[in-house]
Amino acid sequence: MSNFIHVFIPLFVAVDAIGVLPFFINLNEGLSRERVRRIIIQSTATATVVAIAFVLSGQFIFDILGITVADFMIAGGTLLFVISLSDILSTDKKHRMVDHESVGAVPIGVPLIVGPAVLTTALLFMGQYGAGITLFSAVLNIIIAGGLFFASRAINRVLGKAGAKTVSKLASLILAAIGVMMVRKGLMIFLK
After folding, report:
1. Contact, 81 vs 176, CB < 8 A?
2. pTM over 0.90
3. Closest CA to 107 of 5, 20, 10
4. 165-169 own/partner pairs: CB under 8 Å, 24+ apart
5. What is the mean pLDDT of residues 149-175?
6. How far apart, in Å, are the Cα atoms of 29 and each of 21, 100, 129, 169, 190?
7. Other CB atoms closer than 10 Å to residue 132's CB: what's the count?
8. What is the mean pLDDT of residues 44-72?
């Protein structure tokens, strides 16, 4: 159970579904409930397939490139720190003109639900905790994100724009701390 918590919580923070909510709502403004439902299904399906493919091919990539878990912990931790710092310092998630037929896949599924932070975290935990716990945690977090998107209108009314931004910034700060922890653990492995 403790290994599951160690994997689930960082992935929950990396997905940052609450922080993505304002962007999700903005992208779906004026669309019918049925169209929004199809976008949510498309986004969670895309995110799940990408996460599973990346996690399952991760060890193969490590082996071909000669990358150790310690190497990836240091690189991944640094990347998580930079991504989270960028999120902390930015004012909004980037808004682009999108095609409403593919908005669920790109940009919502990838890179908003499953982006560099999630992929890096999942690949690191794959090496530390194994495929089963990592895949289960990643897919569960994607399902939770989908559930939050289904409840997006109600959540947006409760949190408001300022509340959603506050939660997103807090999640980014926690992600920065997780990045530092990964670098520290990677360096400890090198120094042994």
Report:
1. yes
2. no
3. 20
4. 165/19, 165/22, 167/18, 167/19, 168/16, 168/18, 168/19, 168/20, 168/87, 168/93, 169/19, 169/87, 169/88
5. 82
6. 12, 11, 40, 23, 50
7. 12
8. 88
Question: Which amino acid makes up residue 157?
Answer: R
- Containing structural domain, residue 50: 2-191
Residue of 26, 4, 47, 10 lying closest to 171 (CA atoms):
10
Residues 67/124, Cβ–Cβ less than 8 Å: no
The tokens of 39 are what?
A: 């976008």
171 pLDDT more than 50: yes
Dist. CA 92–CA 70, nearest whole Å? 33
The tens digit of pLDDT for each residue in 18-45 reads 778 877 887 787 789 999 999 999 999 9
- Domains contained in the chain, number: 1
Q: Is 95 exposed, middle or buried (0-12, 13-18, 19+ CB in 10 A)?
A: exposed
**What sign has the CA pseudo-torsion 156, 157, 159, 161?**
positive
